[in-house]
Amino acid sequence: MALFDLSRDELEAYRSVSTEPEDFDAFWSETLREAREHDLDARFEAVDTGLTTVQVYDVTFAGFGGHPVKGWLTLPARADRPLPLVVEFVGYGGGRGLPHEHLLWASTGRAHFIMDTRGQGSAWGGGGGTADPVGGAPSYPGFMTRGIDAPGNYYYRRVFTDAVRAVEAARSHPLTDASRTVAVGSSQGGGITIAVGGLVPDLAAVAPDVPFLCDFPRAATLTDRHPYREIGLFLKTHRGRTEDALRTLSYFDGVHFAARGSAPALFSTALEDQTCPPSTVFAAFNAWPHEDKAIEVYEFNDHEGGGPYHEAAKLRWLRSYT
């Protein structure tokens, strides 16, 4: 599809109309306090993958509600001192996959931790292995409306909490340097990265690519592509619940997490992206307060964004921070 969103000048000035809840900070402070009542219990089990240049650990840690969450920690094979740490979050429907799918960051001499996304991991890639044991009210198939009846029940409350705990778990390994921790991810992983950037105050940098979960009021009405379309299809059946649904979503809107970002940031967007429209990405980017921020814009790309070209851009960019 050709350009469908705002012009470049309009994007650079765009601000979301998403209303931040008055108790946003209190909600997340209490959520994380409750999660930390459970012992992190991060366990690292070395696995034989047949790979010779890296050492891989099968990781389990306690996320939201103390529920077990999986991940992979990958280190250069001969690591003998704490290394810069890249914590990665994955796209919608995917899981942590298999270790050999994630070799880029360890190949740079960094430690790499990738978090499984609870309840997902059955749509693409090598799969996932983390259940979501929490039930909820009726929802449209997918994850976007699970628990949308109330902020405390919403699916991404659990995911974002898992993500903060994932950073804590990865930092607990003796061969990772907590002071040089970077969060990265694409699409849903980019949205999770923004949330972590707003909830973890001491990251060295963040790099959300074509991020999802931003500017819900605009996204839900601008694109008819899934996953955002799940919201509209839910409200098509549950007439009259738009205001309540948007109120719940406001606690999870990347725009509000972005406003709390305290690390250097490299965003990316694609101007033909109908999955995560560029205006929703610019809404988060423009809200990010740190003066050291940049956004790579891929003019003729859809949701693949910059693909391998943007991976190369991130590799160059991160040299300044880890």
From TrEMBL:
GO molecular function terms listed in the Swiss-Prot or TrEMBL record: carboxylic ester hydrolase activity
SUPFAM superfamilies: alpha/beta-Hydrolases (SSF53474)
Family matches, as Pfam families: AXE1 (PF05448)
Active-site residues, as the UniProt record annotates them: 187, 273, 303
GO biological process, one term: polysaccharide metabolic process
Start and end residues of each Acetyl xylan esterase domain: 1-319
Chain positions recorded as substrate binding sites: 92
Cited PANTHER family: CEPHALOSPORIN-C DEACETYLASE
The name this protein goes by in its record: Acetylxylan esterase
